[in-house]
Structures are given as C-alpha cells and as structure tokens.
Write a structure and sequence with these properties.
about 350 residues; alpha+beta; Peroxisomal Thiolase, Chain A, domain 1; 8 helices
Length: about 350
C-alpha cells in the first residue's frame, strides 16, 4: 500500500479535433442565428471539431502519445487505464480495451470505462488515486475524451456554439508527481438527470435509425431525442448552488479560505456558468481560470487540457494550492485540492 502523501498527477498530454469551426462559419451556415452575443454568453469564438471518421478513441491515442513523450515513458510503464467518454466507438467493447490494444499495453493492465462526462476527469482522478494508494496500481493512465459534436443537433443554436471535441491523457502516480492530490470529494443528484440527456441510443429507447422527430422549443431552438437535450437554465440554477457549496466544504475541511488558493480550475462549461460560480465564491479574477475561447467546452477533457496549458506556460508553480472542480451530466460534481 502506498501513502497518499505523494500521489498525484505526473503529467498531462492532449489532442484536439482536426477541424476548426468559428462563430463566423456558424453564422454563415445559419443566417437566422444571432451570434453577436455568443462570445459574451459562452466565452467561445471557435472550437475544434473531429474530422469525419475521427473518434474520441483516435484523439485518445494521440493524447496518450503526447503524455508518454512529455514524461519519456511508454505503454509498458502503465499498469491501469481508465477511459472516460460518452462517445465510445461501440456499445461494446469499451473504449478502454480498444485503447489498450492500440497502445500495445501489457496483458496485466486493468482497463475500464466510466461515463461521467464533465465531472469525469475529477471522478477518474479520484479513482486513480485510490488505485495507487491501495497498491493495486503503480501508474494509472486516465484518458478523458469526447466528440460531443456527434451528439449535438446541427440546428440547435443553444449548444452547437458551445462544445468542442478533444482528449486528454493524464498519468497518475506516486513517483514525485507535479500536482499532488490532497483530498477529493464527490456529489450526485440523479433525480435531476433529465436536465442534460440524450434519450435515444440505449437499451430503454433504441436509436431511431432514420432520425428522431425534430421539434423546436418555445424559443425556437431545435431538439431531438437522438441528440443532447439541455435545460440550460435548470443546470445553471443547480450548479450555482451545488458547486460553490462543494468548494466551500473542501476549503473548510482543510481550514483554507479563497485567499489561500492560487488558482481555481473549474470545468469550462460556459462563460456564464463560470461567472456565476466566481461571484458566489468571490474569487478574484486573477485566480479564476477561464480558457475556452478557442476550444469551447471540451466535456471530460476540459480541466486537464486547461491544466496542461497552464503548466506549459509556467503559470503553475511550486508551492501553489489549486482547486479543481468538474460538474455536469448526472447530475454530478467532484472537487479536488491540489498541491504543486
């Protein structure tokens, strides 16, 4: 068994969809859309989109190669693999075993999927940390990858401008990690699951094949049960309460105040969502990381991609204390306290 004193993130790599779709392109494609306030509400001006035939698994292979290169390790140095995605290549087998094969990993590697989307990185980080602490694994590869562009109806003006496609690969270990995980907490509100849902494609409501009925809501936004249905106002209302409470609880548990934290890295849901959380917690602007203008909401890859960028830019420095918090589908949320 390993002491939890030194378990954390050893390194992060990432990969983004091969194509770029700008707000100007969306406006030209949909002349009746008013894109003038998109950047203000979403914080997004362009987003990476997977090319035709490019899947979350393909992006995961590229992200894994990136983190292996950064750490000068290879697949043989990993003995557990967690793959978080809601856009797998197949109903079965899971993406984790497909990635295991693509990377040529050892037969002794534990590999499994989770499907927590926007909270998925923090959930998977907590699971990976537990595997290392228990001695079940020495080094865990956490892969978070989604191609939500496949789940968004092309005429849904409320969320098509928001999401991008991408993957991150994070190595969790006890070997002098760059970012040590001090503590983690988790939350779930299953009774609110329908606030963010794709109804068709599972065992209860199979895929329609020819396409589900397309219907506008009261504001004229287009939905179908084959695509994401999002209650944006309901989600904002819920998470504006749940997320600040979770962060306050974590800080209180460790006798910390907002002033003691160097950086807050939340799931990059939207500018509107992050502004609400920032106001609730009274986080100074310089401590609140907002980085989605050119990536959009990357779902499960959101937080690790931002972290990788901060590390590359030298913004993450030794001695800092950082809060990470993911929230979304489920509804679910998770928070970790990090020491650099």
């Amino acid at each position: 068994m390993t002491s939890n004193a030194g378990v954390g993130i050893e390194g992060i790599g990432y990969s983004l969809g091969a194509l770029t779709v700008t707000n100007a392109q969306l406006q030209a494609e949909n002349p009746h859309w008013d894109m003038s306030k998109t950047i203000e509400r979403t914080g997004v001006s362009s987003r990476p989109i997977a090319a035709e035939g490019e899947t979350a698994l393909d992006l995961a292979v590229q992200a894994s190669a990136d983190v292996f290169r950064r750490l000068d390790i290879d697949a043989a140095d990993v003995d557990a693999l967690i793959f978080c995605t809601q856009t797998p290549d197949h109903v079965l087998p899971p993406n984790s075993v497909l990635l295991h094969g693509r990377l040529g990993m050892l037969p002794s590697v534990m590999a499994f999927d989770i499907t927590h989307a926007c909270s998925g990185f923090v959930y998977a980080l907590g699971i990976a940390r537990s595997l290392v602490i228990s001695g079940t694994a020495r080094r865990v590869l956490v892969v978070t990858a989604d191609t939500y562009s496949r789940l968004v109806h092309p005429l849904d003006r409320s969320i098509r401008p928001l999401f991008g496609d991408g993957a991150a690969a994070t190595v969790v270990a006890a070997q002098q990690p760059k970012l040590r995980v001090i503590d983690a907490s988790f939350g779930t509100s299953g009774k609110n699951a329908e606030r963010f849902i794709v109804k068709n494609g599972g065992a209860r409501h199979g895929a329609t094949g020819s396409g589900a009925l397309v219907e506008p809501d009261r504001s004229g936004r287009i939905y179908s049960d084959d695509h994401i249905r999002m209650d944006g106002i309901g989600l904002l209302s819920f998470f504006n309460n749940a997320v600040p409470t979770a962060v306050r609880d974590m800080l209180g548990k460790h006798a910390l105040a907002v002033s003691d934290i160097s950086l807050f890295v939340f799931h990059q849901a939207s500018r509107l969502a992050l502004d609400g959380i920032s106001r609730a917690l009274q986080i100074p602007e310089q401590k609140m990381v907002v980085d989605m203008e050119d990536t959009g909401n990357l779902v499960s890859a959101s937080i690790p991609v931002v972290l990788a960028k901060l590390i590359d830019k030298g913004i993450v420095a030794e001695g800092q204390t950082i809060v990470l918090c993911g929230f979304g589908v489920g509804l679910s949320w998770a928070t970790v306290l990090i020491q650099v």
